[in-house]
Each structure stands twice: as structure tokens, then as C-alpha cells.
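Quick question about two entries, pasted in order.
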Amino acid sequence: MALTELRFKSAALGMHVAMNVIIPEHVAPPWPTFTLLHGLSDDHTIWHRRTRIEVYAESHPFLIVMPNGFRGFYTKNELGPDYLKYIVEDVRGMVERTFNVRSDRGGRAIGGLSMGGYGALRVGLARPDLYGSINSHSGALMYATWGAAKQSSLKDPEYGRIFGQTGEGTDHDLLVLARRCLEKHAVPETLIDCGTEDFLLGQNRFFVDALRAMQFPHTYVEYPGEHDWNYWDLHVGSALAFHRKALSL
């Protein structure tokens, strides 16, 4: 596998940004892409520094894209930049102009952890025309959906700038996006997992129960583990296998 760092200017953010890219050398292009999103406190280097992602990648055909997502939850902030546009247009556009990759829905997957788990669902469910499969590890899935009455963290000024007073019923709301996918008959293959000792387990169970109630097709798995890199390193390899099967690669 080859590893490179790209630095480029994002039109959506109005600033220079970076992403790490793992390039497969064992399979011929054009390659499918797997965009892998980090959590709230990290950056584009973290997956490579804290997991064996490059080792796992050797068993799969993906070009793996790891962008810096900052702290914007990969959504169009109410008072701030459009991080959704950044991922969908700037990151995807730079990758597809730079590398010999597939440019069809069946050649794109997206996943992430914690904030990035929300982000993968936010991006993938908003643009099912672009992404064929999604996965979320330990996702912070209910920050927008629960509303201020149930989610006190939205009273934090940082989250208020991202989601507004409540994201419930808006484009930040993952359940709203899931319903739209059903209405459009465009449903990405979806995998959600969470550790049984994770402090976000309740959010994941609440979200998955809502998906089941609307009959949204998905796979949900709970494993032993906490909200930490031991868990994410163990399961990112499984996510790669899921995407490979989901996209019939």
C-alpha cells in the first residue's frame, strides 16, 4: 500500500485543508473509494496513527480517503461553514480528479467513528445518489435528532452553532434523511455498530429502534468494548469487509 497526504483549498470552507489517502498497489484501477471520517477531537492523521488501517486495506480493493473534518459534524452548520458540501464536493472532487477511481455510486463507501459516525450517515443518507454503502462506529447519532429538551448538549454554544436550537426535523436529523431515502427508493447499504460499554450506546439503540419502526433496511451489531481506539481498531477491518460485500466488489 502507498500513503500520501494531499493539501488543497476547499471552496466550501474557504481555507486550505488536508487529507491522507491510502492507495492500493495490489489491484488495478479504477479503484472504489472508502471515505473514512474521524471523531470530534481528531484530524486526518488519526486513523493511520491509532489503527492498523493500512494493514487491513491490503485485503481490500479500496482507495481509502481520510479527510480533516475539523469539529463541524460533517453537516451544514447553522452558523458556520458547510462541512457537508466540503466532503461531497471538495474532498470527493479532489480525489476523483487526482486518482484513477470509480465515479459511480457502486464505487463509493463512507464511514466513520463517533462524530464521524454521525457524519457518515449525514453525508450518505443526504446523498444516496453518490454513496452505495455507509457505516458508523460508536456514532454520536442523536445530537440533532433528540432536540434541546432531551439533549442538553445542544445548549452548548458550539453545538448550537452547528445544529441550531434543535436539529430535530431538519436536514441535520438523520431520521428525516432516512425517511427521504425510503421515499426515493434509494437506500444505501447501512451498517451501525457500538460497544456495549460505550457511553453513546443509548443513542445508538434509540436511533436503531427508530430505523426499525420505519422499516429502514440496516444491520446493527453490538460488540464488547468502550468508546476508544481498541474498539475502533478492532472493527474498522470489519467495516471494510462490509463495504466490499455491500458494493459487490
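Here is the second entry:
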Amino acid sequence: MKFWVGVTDNRWYEFLAQRRLDEVNFWQPSATPPFKGAPVGMPFLFKLKRPNNHIAGGGFFVTYSTLPVPLAWEIFGEKNGAAALDEFFALLGPLASGRGLSGAIGCTVLTNPFFLPAERWVEPPGWAPNIVRGKMYETSLDDGSALWAAVARSLSQERAQVMTPEGISEEEAKYGPAVLVSPRLGQASFRVLITDAYKRRCAITGESTLIALEAAHIVPYAHEGTHDVRNGLLLRADFHRLYDAGLVSVTPGLRIKISPRIHEAYFNGKAYYRMNDASLTQIPDRPEQRPDPDRLNWHYKNCFQA
């Protein structure tokens, strides 16, 4: 198994270590991805800068994307490692002053983050001082195997105090063996995955103004829907609201349906009715990312105001 050790901003780490979040944005000023072709669930460890120089935690890789600074803040909020937007800009430093709001940053989305107490930090073997971004390790090699075992031991010690009479839960056991994790996606992960799956274009209109696009759940999260990419559509903000209200739907055959209730309630809607029964403008290229027909049917049958 491969895993990444990323050089980590100490302030970012200290802020997030004090919070119990389900996901974090490991951002970088450069829009160049730190690695390519990583599988979902690959471990990603946090290696602090001087004077610490130790691995102090980690998470599990979901996806990588580039986002404008304001949108990164809107999506992740404090999961960026700051309590407010001005503090986020302070962390960005030269990017904020040189490129301002239009600057795009690289966002590595990680789920299930964990943070080790200082007495259980791990020194990475074979770490050259000129490494500025990170290093990929493999558990099939000596240094990777030793490092993963040391991190697993540190985590096991940290979690021993919460073991129950039933034994180690799945949540705890996953950090030990060198296996990939099927990560539990959060709201921010869901939005980034949907945005990129639809190539940053509204599924209905084709609109590509990124700040106006939102990730809509097909089966609402409050109704046992999931943050799965197949349970989502990328929609322009007005269509997102109409979809959630049941005034717009999409059939399992990927055809758009516009409810007559729009005209009945608001005496308007001509711009919407032109799209009735048209096919979706944008769908993901990869079949495994396309909307689930069963979930589309659920929305059409249970939510749409026909």
C-alpha cells in the first residue's frame, strides 16, 4: 500500500487538532497536485515543519481540486484551518496579497482526520531536509513498513482508553493494518466531488459560473440520503432551490421535469418551462459517477409536484 506524508503548516495543524471535524482541506498555494492517481482512501499523514519535524496525525484521501479562495472558504469554512475568512487569508500569505480573491488554491480533501498527542508523534525515516511538499511511501519497502507500523502503534495507544468490552470497533481497527479505507464522505467532500464530476457545469442549464453552482442531493440527506456522488446533481442555485422544493425533478431517463405549480404559485416561470422534458445538458463522463436511476425515481415519485 502507498501512503503520502505531506509537509504541514503548523498553525493549520494546531487549529484543527483542537476540533473534532469529519473532514479537512489540506490546501496549498500552488494549484499543482502533490501526487497523481492516488486511490480514494489512501492514508495521508501530516508531517509538521520546524521545530517539530514529526508526523503528528493524518487523514484519508478523497479527491484533489483547485478552487478560488472565496469558494474554498464557502465550502470548507473552518475545515480550512482558520476560524474566519480574514484568518484564512493570513494563512495564505503571499497568495492573498499577490492574487487576491481571484487566486486559485490546490485543495486535497481528506476525511476522518486524526491528531496524535505530542508524546506519540513519529519521526519519518529517510526524510531529506529539502523535501518541501511531501513524500510517497510504500508499505512493501522497509522505511514505509516501519513508518506505518509506528503510526499504527501511536494511534492504538491513543485509542486504547476508549476501547469497549466488545473489543476494537471498525472505526478504530482501520488504522492498524496496511489497507485502504472506504472513507465516510462529508458535505464538503460531496460538493467538491459533484463539482468536478459534472465538469463545473450545471446539469440542467450548462451554466459554468462556478460561484453560482451548488451540489444538490437527489435523496435529501435528512431522508437518509448519502453524500455519495451518485446521489447528487450539480445545479445552478435557483434550480437547486426548485429541485429541493419539488418544483423541478429529473427522471431516471435523465429528462428534466418542470412543475406547473411554479406558474400557479408565482404567475411566472417561462424561462423554466422551456426546459421541460429536455435531456440533461451535462452528466459525468464516468458511468460510476452518474446519478442513480433508483434515487432519481425516488425524487420524481415522492418529491416532484406534478
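Reply: Strands lie at 2-8, 23-28, 43-48, 55-68, 104-115, 134-138, 213-217, 232-236, 248-250, 256-258. Residues 187-302 form one domain. Hope that helps.
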